[in-house]
Design goal:
The chain is an alpha+beta fold and about 300 residues long. The protein is about 20% helix and about 25% strand. The protein folds into three domains: about 45 residues, no CATH class; about 140 residues, Rossmann fold (3-Layer(aba) Sandwich), CATH 3.40.50.300; about 90 residues, no CATH class. The strands form three sheets. It has a six-stranded mixed β-sheet, sandwiched between helices. A five-stranded antiparallel β-sheet has the order 7-10-14-13-16, with no helix packed on it. Strands 11-8-9-15-12 form a five-stranded antiparallel β-sheet, with no helix packed on it. Bound molecules: guanosine-5'-triphosphate and magnesium ion.
C-alpha cells in the first residue's frame, strides 16, 4: 500500500472523488497534494475524519503527544481536546514569530497555565524562524515515538518539515493532512495527525507579526472588524489581536442594539479562528455573530503591560 507523501492517504487510481487519487500509481503525491503544492488549489476529496475518530486513534497509539496550537487560537474548544488526550503530552504553542513584541513570553505561558488550568509543560516554538526547535528535538530524542496533534492549520506538518526536512504538504487551507503520516528518522518515529476541526468563525492564517490595535470605543460607535459588528454599552478601551490585514472601521450606531454579552474587567473576547479582543473595563457588548463562534476569558495578556 503506497501512501501519498504529502497527506498520508493511500494512493489509488480508481476514484477521483476519493482521497489519494492519482492517475499514475508511480507518483509520490495524490492529485490533491500535487495541485495544492504547485498551484495552491484545493480540491475537496474523500471524507474528513471526525474529531472523535482522530482522538481515538491518538489515544490508541500510546505515544507522547505534542499538541500544537498558536496563541491566537487558544480557546476552551482547543484546550478541551488537549485535555481529552490520555497520553503523556506537552502543549506546544507554535508560530511564536506572530506574537507581538509587547507580550512577555513567560507571562503569556503562565497566564495560559492559569486560565486553562494546564499542568503539563508548555513550550513556545516557530517553524518559520526556527525558534526553540531544539526543545522539540530533545523531546523526540527522549520519547522515541511522538505524535504531532492539534487543530487544522495549527502548523503541525510545518513543524515536522522544519525538524526533520520532510516534505509533507502544508497549506493555509483546512484539512491539509488527511491521514496519519508515519516518518522514521534514525530510531525515532514521528506521526503527523490530521487536524481537528472546531466551530471556528474563520480559519485565518496571519503571515506577519501581529500588531495589536487599540481603540477607544465610545458607546455611540460600533466597530466593524471584517464582517463582525461589535458595540460596547459603556465607553471602553479595547485592543485587537488579529491578522492586521483585516479591515477595521469605526462607525456611528444608527439602530437600537441589544447588549447581551457581559465582558468583565480585563477579559478577552475570543473570536474562534480569528484571534481575540482584550477589554480593560467591564461592559456589555452587542455582537452580530452566533455565540458558538466566541468565548470570554480572563485576559491572556494580563500582567504584560505593567
Ligand atoms: N507565521 C507562521 N506561520 C506558520 C508557521 N507554521 C505554519 N505556518 C502556516 O500555517 C499554515 C498551516 O500550516 P500546516 O503545517 O499545513 O498546518 P497543519 O497543522 O499541518 O494543518 P492540517 O494538516 O490541516 O491539520 C500554513 O499556511 C503555514 O505556512 C509558523 O511557525 N509561523
Ligand atoms: Mg498537516
Amino acid at each position: 500500500m503506497k501512501k501519498c507523501l504529502g497527506c498520508g492517504s493511500v494512493l489509488q487510481n480508481t476514484d477521483a472523488e476519493e482521497s489519494g487519487y492519482t492517475p499514475k500509481l508511480e507518483n509520490d503525491l495524490c492529485m490533491r497534494c500535487f495541485k495544492l503544492k504547485h498551484y495552491g488549489n484545493l480540491i475537496n476529496v474523500g471524507k474528513k475524519q471526525s474529531n472523535d475518530t482522530i482522538l481515538n486513534k491518538i489515544n490508541k497509539k500510546k505515544s507522547t503527544v505534542l499538541f500544537i496550537t498558536d496563541f491566537l487560537n487558544m480557546c476552551d474548544e482547543v484546550i478541551g481536546i488537549f485535555k481529552k488526550i490520555k497520553n503523556k503530552k506537552v502543549l506546544v504553542i507554535t508560530k511564536s514569530d506572530l506574537i507581538p513584541k509587547n507580550i512577555v513570553r513567560d507571562k503569556l505561558i503562565n497566564n495560559i497555565k492559569d486560565i486553562y488550568e494546564i499542568d503539563e509543560d508548555i513550550i513556545l516554538v516557530s517553524s518559520k524562524n526556527k525558534e526553540n526547535l531544539r526543545a522539540l528535538e530533545n523531546i523526540c530524542w527522549k520519547e522515541k515515538t511522538v505524535i504531532f496533534a492539534g487543530f487544522t492549520n495549527a502548523g503541525k506538518s510545518s513543524l515536522i518539515n522544519a525538524l526533520v526536512g520532510s516534505d509533507i504538504t502544508v497549506s493555509s487551507k483546512i484539512n491539509t493532512t488527511q491521514e496519519f503520516i508515519r516518518l522514521v528518522v534514525e530510531d525515532i518515529v514521528i506521526f503527523d495527525a490530521p487536524g481537528f476541526i472546531g466551530e471556528f468563525y474563520k480559519a485565518d492564517v496571519p503571515k506577519t507579526k501581529i500588531k495589536p490595535i487599540t481603540y477607544q470605543l465610545a458607546s455611540k460607535y460600533y466597530l466593524k472588524i471584517g464582517d463582525i459588528d461589535i458595540a460596547s454599552e459603556a465607553d471602553n478601551n479595547l485592543t485587537i489581536y488579529m491578522n492586521n490585514g483585516i479591515n477595521i472601521d469605526k462607525r456611528r450606531i444608527k439602530d437600537t442594539l441589544e447588549y447581551g454579552l457581559i465582558i468583565p474587567t480585563n477579559h478577552d473576547l475570543v473570536i474562534k479562528g480569528l484571534g481575540f479582543i482584550s477589554f480593560s473595563k467591564i461592559t456589555r457588548l452587542y455582537i452580530n455573530i452566533d455565540s458558538k463562534y466566541y468565548e470570554v476569558r480572563p485576559t491572556i495578556i494580563g500582567g504584560n503591560h505593567e
